[in-house]
């Protein structure tokens, strides 16, 4: 079968990989000059199956009025004249109920576990390198009341098979010695020992190279203008080349992996998905003092900043800005992140050599992705992975290949349609 994959972020590249492994003739179309230059470029790097709580939760609902008035709030809403934004926000608020949050959290964890195992199997098979580290992820709290709440939640979740180790401040520092200087300020933490960190951009580019060696065709610098549907069946996509030339690329199956841009591509053919861009920021800096640098993934829950160690670099990310499709940088956000690195790991990174980045998370109200067949024959979607697209990439790619083969994936994706 011929399969056209639209978009070469970490989701499109992994989908192409598993579709090729299933024996299909795969062609990937990407408007940028290489793979993973948009949302997948400089994310937090956390492959987090166990600490992937959706933003739509009861605590967000409680804090929202305060955040709306706070310039540096972790979640910012900039109202736009865009019905999709308002509709998305209403659905997001609905997902904040206790019941929906609990259901979404377990669902995300199951997809995360399946994906992490798939990533590990792929690593064993290919030997792919991407500055990964298997040291777990530690989320720590500085507020004792917030720690008590997250410890109680962790114990409740354990009954559902979600393993989160509740740690005292001493245990937090033993797990991540770089936090020792601020031990007295730590109330406690939640540690997920089997989670990992790694560079999604490096991974996607390396996998694209391996995929090309195995026969996947990658067309870079080619923008998809519209999906082609004839007689109720998807036939491929109309694309525009760098020189302005247009053509229709035909395929038996078309898989939309265009991240935050997927809703706009799908709407004209009658497929409605609630995926909206949620902007985040990151900074990356080289490590200059190994003894002061973090070794594992760390999240400071009070300020919602995630840190990773990626080889000889430190990465820090934060912020959820619901502000439309503008991915421009706000340097103040990046400078605040540099301040957080200095606060947690003083002297570890070179603050004179900081790389700033902003990206749009392709987010659904529940944070659960769309993975599966649409109502249009021959048209599939693999998009909307929100805060955990890197974590879920391999599982989603494997699932798309299984769904195309008429099988139900081992793990239940909410949008399978087989
Ligand atoms: C600040 C931040 C921190 C994050 N931290 C983590 C983390 O720690 N762990 C985690 O698991 N996830 C994290 N994420 C989320 C993760 O990065 C995303 O969910 C994931 O990268 C989405 O991948 P994607 O392939 O769907 O989208 P993208 O990477 O955006 O890929 C979509 C591709 O489609 C292409 N495209 C779009 N429209 C067209 C068109 N018309 N024609 C041709 N090509 C097109 C784009 O150029 C792009 O390359 C974070 C995200 C951000 C922003």
Short key terms for the protein model shown above:
418 residues; D-Amino Acid Oxidase, Chain A, domain 2; nine-stranded mixed β-sheet; 26% strand; FAD/NAD(P)-binding domain; 2 domains; binds flavin-adenine dinucleotide; 10 helices; six-stranded mixed β-sheet
Provide a descriptive summary of the structure in words:
By secondary structure, this protein is α/β, with parallel strands linked by helices. It folds into two domains: 2-40 and 202-274 and 367-404, FAD/NAD(P)-binding domain (3-Layer(bba) Sandwich), CATH 3.50.50; 46-106 and 131-196 and 276-363, D-Amino Acid Oxidase, Chain A, domain 2. Helix content is 32%, strand content 26%. The chain has ten helices and 20 strands. The strands form four sheets. Strands 4, 5, 6, 7, 14, 15, 16, 17 and 18 form a nine-stranded mixed sheet that branches. β19 and β20 (379-383) form a beta hairpin. α1 (10-21) packs parallel to α7 (200-213) and α4 (98-126) packs across α10 (389-404). The longest helix is centred in the N-terminal third of the chain and has 29 residues, at 98-126. It is globular, with a radius of gyration of 21 Å. The two termini are 18 Å apart. The mean pLDDT is 95. The chain binds flavin-adenine dinucleotide. Residues 6-12, 29-32, 36-40, 43-46, 48, 200, 223-224, 257-259, 261, 280, 282, 306, 317, 359, 361-362, 383, 385-391 line the site of flavin-adenine dinucleotide.
């Amino acid at each position: 079968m011929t399969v056209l994959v639209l978009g070469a972020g970490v989701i499109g590249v992994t989908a192409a990989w598993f579709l090729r492994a299933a024996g299909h003739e795969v062609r990937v179309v990407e408007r940028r000059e290489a793979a993973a230059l948009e949302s997948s470029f400089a994310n937090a790097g956390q492959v987090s199956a166990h600490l992937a709580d959706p933003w739509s939760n009861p605590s967000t609902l409680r804090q929202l009025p305060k955040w709306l008035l706070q310039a540096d709030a972790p979640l910012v809403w900039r109202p736009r004249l865009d019905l999709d934004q308002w509709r998305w926000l209403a659905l997001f608020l609905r997902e904040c109920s206790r019941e929906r949050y609990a259901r979404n959290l377990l669902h995300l964890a199951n997809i995360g576990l399946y994906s992490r195992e798939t990533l590990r199997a792929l690593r064993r098979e290919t030997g792919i390198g991407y500055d990964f580290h298997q040291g777990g992820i530690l989320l720590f709290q500085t507020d004792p009341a917030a720690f008590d709440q997250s410890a109680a939640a962790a114990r409740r979740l354990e009954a559902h098979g979600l393993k989160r180790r509740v740690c005292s401040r001493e245990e937090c520092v033993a797990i991540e010695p770089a936090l020792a200087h601020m031990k007295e300020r730590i109330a406690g933490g939640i540690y997920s020992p089997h989670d990992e960190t790694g560079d999604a951009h490096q991974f996607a580019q390396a996998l694209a190279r391996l995929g090309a060696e195995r026969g996947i065709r990658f067309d870079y610098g080619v923008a998809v203008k519209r999906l082609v549907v004839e007689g109720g069946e998807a036939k491929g996509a109309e694309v525009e080349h760098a020189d302005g030339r247009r053509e229709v690329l035909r395929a038996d199956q078309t898989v939309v992996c265009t991240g935050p841009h997927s809703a706009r591509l799908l709407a004209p053919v009658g497929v409605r998905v609630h995926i909206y861009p949620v902007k985040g920021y990151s900074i990356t800096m080289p490590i200059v003092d190994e003894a002061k640098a973090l070794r594992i993934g760390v999240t400071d829950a009070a300020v919602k900043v995630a840190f990773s160690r990626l080889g000889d670099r430190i990465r820090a990310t934060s912020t959820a800005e619901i502000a439309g499709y503008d991915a421009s940088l706000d340097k103040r956000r990046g400078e605040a992140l540099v301040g957080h690195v200095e606060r947690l790991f003083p002297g570890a990174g070179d603050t004179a050599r900081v790389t700033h980045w902003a990206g749009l998370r392709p987010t659904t109200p529940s944070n659960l992705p769309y993975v599966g067949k649409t109502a249009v024959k021959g048209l599939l979607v693999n998009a909307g992975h929100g805060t955990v697209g890197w974590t879920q990439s391999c599982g989603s790619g494997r699932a798309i290949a299984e769904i195309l083969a008429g099988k139900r994936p081992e793990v239940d994706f909410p949008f399978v349609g087989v």
